[in-house]
Design a protein that fits this description.
The structure holds 2 protein chains of 2 kinds. Chain A has 10 helices and no strands. The longest helix of chain B has 39 residues. Classes of the chains: A mainly alpha, B mainly alpha.
Chain lengths: 245, 226
């Protein structure tokens, strides 16, 4: 193999002239972080709601939540992304759809990616929340009801405060996954980390430097998230449970 | 309002089926290689030889920290160069399928090894002690006592991972390889019927994965009646 290593490539001015290739990578890194974090917040809110609904006695609500989870878990992420990006704007009423399609293409890519990652992840978060609620001793719910709380009050004051603390450790791995899954969004042209890496290869023909930089960036994200979540897990662990004091 | 036109699907079915075969082949070989190599990694991870356990931990953590898309891009980059140089293939041979298969197998092995490690650890310690008390070597105890019990417990998890893997094969799209999703996308793009083809592809994946996961649930109940 006669590969010409050239790590200086990152400091060269990029093809667009106003930036270096390192600047491209940083822009991609920021995009990955911004996309993953916004999608994660949405996924947590939606996932908590759907997860709670899966455990309620009301058949219609629980059925809806089950359908939601099965739908988003049984279609590949890439297919979901393409449906959000290519299909949904077509199905909107013509006036709204046309206005959307004329908006900034980067905004369209970001919105489709964010909604897609958020809903995909929310189904997984919902499963963790559900198993957290189901892992509580039955007596807690009965005790709440016996004290005269209504069912929503029992959830609000008795079950959820416990359940949310119990699901933090399993949610850490979903949090790590959302950063990794965001790489799929490069397929619709969103210029996140993986996409910037491929663009750099197209412009400089230095694939190894580019891929190594991208790979190390993902590893760095992984390490930082794991360290922070580990600290958080220890603070929030319930005494007497696994991981608690 | 959008007017649906599903007429390009029937004619495209043979092409889509060819794509589905590629998806299934990648899945099947990645499951097989992944379980075999994953078992080896799990045993290394649990081994008392430090070097082996560090190697396995490093391998698993590396693959689990990197997005699958990135792993596939690496393999599409490296494998063809490697094969052309070492095996003297003419440059430009289409190695995308072999690259994808190798990438998936090595990537999935990291995930399988974690499932298998948990499975091995779930077998009570007394079983290992009993095996050595009967005069079995460590390898015999593993093969005849621990692994059969571990695998029986792991079957549902291994199958669930296979379903996830089947969904992930759609990511070979990054190399323009015509798996089922790639085929559906190409047909939709050609006929200007992307909306219908993407919805159709989604529906097919849903039916396959949903049915498979229901089967796994039933199997789980049969093995472990709660």
């Amino acid at each position: 193999m006669s590969y010409q290593w050239n790590w200086g490539v990152f400091l060269q001015p990029s093809a667009s002239g106003d930036d270096t290739y390192l600047g491209w990578m940083l822009a991609g890194f920021k995009m990955t972080i911004a996309l993953s974090l916004t999608a994660w917040v949405l996924a947590l809110l939606l996932g908590a709601l759907i997860g709670v609904l899966r455990t309620v006695p009301n058949k219609a609500l629980a059925g809806f939540a089950t359908g939601y989870v099965e739908l988003f878990r049984n279609v590949p992420l890439l297919v979901q992304l393409f449906i959000w990006y290519f299909v949904l704007p077509e199905l909107l009423p013509a006036s709204i759809g046309d206005a959307y399609k004329q908006s900034n293409p980067m905004l369209q890519q970001f919105l489709a990616s964010m909604v897609c990652l958020a809903l995909f992840t929310s189904a997984r978060v919902a499963e963790q929340v559900r198993s957290g609620i189901n892992s509580l001793p039955k007596g807690q719910k009965n005790a709440g009801l016996a004290l005269g709380f209504t069912l929503p009050q029992t959830y609000r004051f008795v079950m959820l405060p416990m359940a949310f603390r119990l699901v933090v450790p399993p949610l850490t791995s979903e949090f790590l996954n959302i950063f990794k899954n965001s790489a799929v969004c490069s397929t619709i042209g969103l210029m996140e980390l993986a996409a910037q890496g491929r663009q750099l290869v197209d412009y400089t023909a230095q694939p190894y430097e580019s891929f190594i930089a991208v790979t190390l960036s993902y590893i760095a994200i992984n390490v930082v998230v794991m360290t922070l979540m580990h600290k958080f897990e220890r603070r929030i662990a319930v005494p007497g449970y696994i991981g608690g004091k | 309002m959008y007017e649906f036109d599903w007429s390009s699907i029937p004619g495209a079915l043979p092409f889509l089926w060819d794509g589905m075969k590629i998806s299934l082949v990648i899945t099947a070989q990645a499951v097989l290689v992944g379980i075999v190599w994953g078992t080896a990694l799990a045993m290394m991870r649990l081994s008392s030889v430090k070097a082996l356990s560090w190697f396995a931990a490093g391998y698993v953590n590396l693959f689990r920290a990197v997005p699958l898309v990135m792993v596939l891009l690496w393999f599409f980059l490296i494998v063809p160069r490697f094969v052309e140089t070492l095996l003297d293939f003419p440059p430009g041979t289409d190695l995308r399928l072999s690259s994808a298969m190798m990438g998936f197998a090595l990537f999935e092995a990291a995930y399988y090894s974690e499932i298998i490690r948990a499975g091995i650890q779930s077998v009570p310690k007394g079983q290992v002690a009993a095996a050595s008390a009967l005069g079995m070597t460590y390898a015999q105890g593993m093969r005849l006592v621990v692994l059969p019990q571990a695998f029986r417990n792991m079957v549902p998890l291994l199958l669930t991972q296979a379903i996830i893997l089947f969904q992930d094969t759609s990511l070979v799209y990054v190399s323009a390889l015509a798996d089922f999703f790639g085929a559906a996308y190409k047909v939709g793009d050609r006929d200007g019927r992307l909306v219908e083809m993407l919805l159709f592809a989604g529906a097919v994946y849903f039916v396959i994965c949903f049915s498979a996961s229901q089967l796994v649930k039933r199997l789980q109940k049969k093995y472990h009646p709660a």
